[in-house]
């Protein structure tokens, strides 16, 4: 069987039971040392429509787990910090040890959607640790660095890993990060698009430094996940590929 099919965006639904329970607060991990349990918080029955209070002090209706994966140095931690805090971590590169997570609640079409975002270490030596977390992920953002060809070449290996460890219906998006570094670019936008098309993945170029397309990537994921379990009968079907294509900022429309 062709592997390509595995990553085609699936119109199937995520069962309500696979969303995170809304009343469950996130257990903070100690950055750099402690490894939160893959089951924390556990998946459980969802009560859609009931506004709940999370342990982290945030109100939300429904929660999902999103994982950031990709080679070390592609900008996973910076992307998360940009999304969560609107800031860029410039300066010395501090590689993530193990895994950590941050929460953010988004307003998606009038519903509070909490994303629990797991930032994994890209270094090979932590691979066995992160494997355990894949199975609970509702969505994966797979990153490469547009200034680092090796990180792009490794995408196929990451897809093999995802195929092995993640759920079949996981929402997956490919992101080419550091698009602000125009002088150092080593991977053409068309090559990213081609690879994404080959595997049926939605694709965008992002910059954690300038923030371009960062909110959009997470919002698109949140919309897709929310609609999979909460679609109103008369609501038009959300098309993730079309949405990112339509909303994404690129060299022809905007400055990086
Ligand atoms: N120019 C530019 N630099 C970036 C961007 N994102 C991250 N960086 C830089 O790239 C380096 C690595 O970023 P991280 O976010 O720590 O990389 P990571 O993927 O989390 O790496 P690991 O934790 O080892 O897996 C840092 O020096 C960042 O400042 C970006 O969008 N543009
Ligand atoms: Mg990191």
UniProtKB/TrEMBL annotation:
**CDD domains per record:** Rab26
Per UniProt, subcellular location reads as: Membrane
Pfam assignment, any one = Ras
The UniProt GO MF terms for this protein read:
G protein activity; GTP binding; metal ion binding
The EC number on file is 3.6.5.2
Q: Which reaction does it catalyse?
A: GTP + H2O = GDP + phosphate + H(+)
As for family, the record states: Belongs to the small GTPase superfamily. Rab family.
Return the NCBIfam families for the record: small_GTP
In terms of InterPro entries, this protein maps to:
P-loop_NTPase, Small_GTP-bd, Small_GTPase, Small_GTPase_Rab
In terms of PROSITE patterns, this protein maps to:
RAB, RAS, RHO
Q: What is its main location?
A: membrane
Instruction: Give the species this sequence originates from.
Output: Octodon degus (Degu)
Q: How does it sit in the membrane?
A: Lipid-anchor
List keywords of the entry alphabetically: GTP-binding, Hydrolase, Lipoprotein, Magnesium, Metal-binding, Nucleotide-binding, Prenylation, Protein transport, Transport
Q: Name one GO biological process term.
A: protein transport
Annotated Gene Ontology cellular components are: membrane
- Protein's UniProt keywords contain ATP-binding: no
Compositional bias of kind Low complexity: 9-19
Encoded by which gene? Rab26
Please state what the protein is called: small monomeric GTPase
